[in-house]
Amino acid sequence: xxxxxxxxxxxxxxxxxxxxxxxxxxxxxxxxxxxxxxxxxxxxxxxxxxxxxxxxxxxxxxxxxxxxxxxxxxxxxxxxxxxxxxxxxxxxxxxxxxxxxxxxxxxxxxxxxxxxxxxxxxxxxxxxxxxxxxxxxxxxxxxxxxxxxxxxxxxxxxxxxxxxxxxxxxxxxxxxxxxxxxxxxxxxxxxxxxxxxxxxxxxxxxxxxxxxxxxxxxxxxxxxxxxxxxxx
Length: 232
Ligand code: MN
Known about the structure:
Layout: E1 13-14, E2 23-24, E3 28-32, H1 36-41, E4 51-55, E5 60-62, E6 68-71, E7 80-82, E8 84-90, E9 106-113, E10 116-117, H2 118-127, H3 132-135, E11 141-143, E12 147-148, E13 159-164, E14 167-173, H4 181-191, E15 199-201, E16 209-210, E17 216-221, E18 227-231
Parallel strand pairs: 3-15, 5-11, 6-18
Antiparallel strand pairs: 1-2, 3-4, 7-10, 7-16, 8-9, 8-15, 9-12, 13-14, 13-17, 17-18
The protein binds manganese (II) ion.
């Protein structure tokens, strides 16, 4: 018998390649402007300390292997942008994690999209207000299956790309991260205590742009399951 005043909302979880058990999600951290060419296209120098924002865990749009997720075009925007990102899934928590120890905290990796209501984000930036309405809306965090780190290959050197309707829009490599995976985990863990179930969207390379209803996005990172999402 539950003692809650309404049924407890389910814990959002992501499938894991090769496992029957799923990865239960606690928090979603995102890194801003973590590829130099993307920082430049957004009007910044490309060199700054890492900064972070969050999305609610239930903003995930979980897409199983081989399936195409359906993302409803969100309200309040006329400039919905894609950002393909490597997602690191934390399996072991900690705080003040050393860079040298950081990779041991990673359970696995997935392809994610940091979908952004760019017009609202730009407006909030201009006013010095929080980004939540531009970043943390429903279905704003599509994600594919998590691949255990040992099975993901050389993820630090993997190609990362995004196609829209079969045309490549973003095309880079994870080596171009300004703050690499270990450094990002180390920085994050000075500000928050990381816990198992945390996801880190590590930032997007250059080439971001808008999608409209009907567009089919395919995010790709070598070694991981591709992520297919159609805007509907
Ligand atoms: Mn992003």
